Amino acid sequence: MGLIWRAADPPPGQTAPSAAVPADSVVYAIGDLHGRDDLLAEIHSGVLEDAARRAARRRVLIYLGDYFSRGRDSRAVVESVLNWRPRDWEIVTLLGNHEDLMRRFLAGDPRPGRHWLNFGGVAALENYGLALADPAARDSATLEALRQRLHTGLPPQHRQFLETLALTHREGDYLFVHAGVLPGVPLARQAPRDLVWIRNRFRASSLDHGAVVVHGHCITPEPEVRANRIGIDTGAYQSNVLTCLMLEGAARRFLQTG
Fold first, then answer.
1. Which of 5, 70, 87 lies closest to 32 in space, CA to CA?
2. Which CATH superfamily is domain 3-96+165-257 in?
């Protein structure tokens, strides 16, 4: 494959975001992973190579969530995220909607379990050696048995990872979340469900949210750059294109697999 650097410019007729990260910092944000440990390895290498050329002393890497489900190996993705710890880097791991489903299912609610299985959870279970005898089964008894198996089959470090994911992260004029924010609501009063699940109402809004929101969650063929948000979920699990946003001062660029 290989890596490609691209300008992070808005499309014609759209206004570029007016925002910057803190001085002497370089910030990288990686979009939805969904089990693509192979693409993550490429991005990690590209990020290290790029950061080595920069004078910024503070280096931050932010994962926007959705580590599990759909792609070739969810378990390997979590291992990579847990183990990638270059010296003096700050690492931020955010909660995605797939992790939200897993948390709620493990807490005892079968409804998120059904949703998760219908949207890639079956593949994630196979990665943990927990394949279903009947992948189509969604009855209460099957779900409860699966919940118990997941409780014991998920490695403790992975369970801790799942339970400690953050909802948001702020860097200067940018707010990093998985899905977006509810327009018109102050950032400090955003509901966790909106931060992890919102879609169309957020994407259609031209309101100033109080920060430029960097998000994933909604797949687009190309990254979306608008005055109030930057979307970087390019559907890596099916497109082979994983997108990373690089921010330094007021500068922005995209690093992508291709």
1. 70
2. Metallo-dependent phosphatases (3.60.21.10)
